[in-house]
Amino acid sequence: MTVSSRTTVSVYLPFPSAWRRVALAFAVSAAITFAQEPSTFQKVCTNIRYGVDAVGTPVVMASCPKSDRKAQVESYVALRGFHNKEGRLSAGPGASTFQRTCTGMKLEVRKDDGAVLLWASCPKTSGEQVETSIVVWDVHADSSGQLHHRVPGNDKVTPPVKRL
Known about the structure:
Elements: H1 17-33, E1 46-53, E2 58-65, E3 72-78, E4 82-85, E5 88-91, E6 103-109, E7 116-123, E8 129-135, E9 139-141, E10 147-149, E11 160-163
Antiparallel strand pairs: 1-2, 1-11, 2-3, 4-5, 6-7, 7-8, 9-10
């Protein structure tokens, strides 16, 4: 929804004024938390792949250049907030859970627009397997070649131990 400077938006919250302020603050905070930007690491990094760290957390792995462009650094960052919802990958809060039920995970850089896709085969509750994908947002490489995910808490992972 686009709101111009001439438009007034009124929201009725059936709470006492103190609760109204808390509810509004929560709504604004949630909107800010889930704002997404396209990933940019794929523009400078190579050998982009899916992996799993030592404790089972799914990670993005890539070879990324330092700012001097003379050296490549092996870098990784956690894929947090991805879930299997009835055979489809979805994004939401918290640690990822899709890796518990899905198989065949891989990352792909889409040729037409450069978006990074996470692919997996995930089961529905009926047991039917569904090939599914979702865009990976907000992953960026810094000047030292390290990958970062701009969602708080996503940068702390143990070293990856296996590729799938």
